[in-house]
Request: fold
Amino acid sequence: MNPSRNPFIAGNWKMHRTVSESVSLARAVADGSRIGPRTEVVVAPVATALAAVGKALEGARVGLSAQNVHWEDQGAFTGELSPGMLKDVGCAYCIVGHSERRQLFGETDANVHRKLLALRRHGLAPIACLGETLSERESGVTYDVLRRQLDGMLGALEREEATALLTGLIIAYEPVWAIGTGRTAKSTDAQSAHAYLRDRIRDRFGEVADTVRILYGGSVKADNAAELLAQPDVDGVLVGGASLDAAGFARIIQAAG
Ligand code: PEP
Reply:
């Protein structure tokens, strides 16, 4: 971590937990975690639980994130939720471009770009995910993939528009082969990928790159979080499976200081 950026710890609950179970888990995270003064903690429950968890977290130091969003404000988009609707139930963050959405539901970089712009327009902070597959890593094209995804997500913006988009943006580097597999990236490999992403943002858009928080995600647990967070360009973690256990998630939060 770099002291100029506040640590960010996010729990992605994916398609787990009913409304009442989500509320209990959120309360357990809020009551059972020692959150450092500079650390931001966020949980992302299923859409049906957002309103109830948002209420349960009122006044707590744990923020609320959605797991997906549509870029339009309203309309004939069956099954979708708009940024304004997420804000209405207390969300301040939204995950976009998660690899499960890319692989299983056809999410594209172009759509992630639209979602980023829509979220920023409504004052929500995007947590934008990218990362290479195992075959891409094995064939040595990891950085080409990261560059293509990053450039696609950020789009062909002018510097000024990009600065507005990048201010408050959170990126999550999540190698697909590490998600839900128990296989974590080496902390030095995570650092290299994060530094590559930050350099690419700096090359295109300048100093604002130093304000963007880049999280690592992929089988983060209580016993590997500290080593990952010790890397200078790892500003936090996005945690899937291990965030469903409040005690384990609390230990990850503590690793951030
Ligand atoms: C995720 O869903 O973003 C994730 C990183 O999952 P896990 O921690 O289970 O690998």
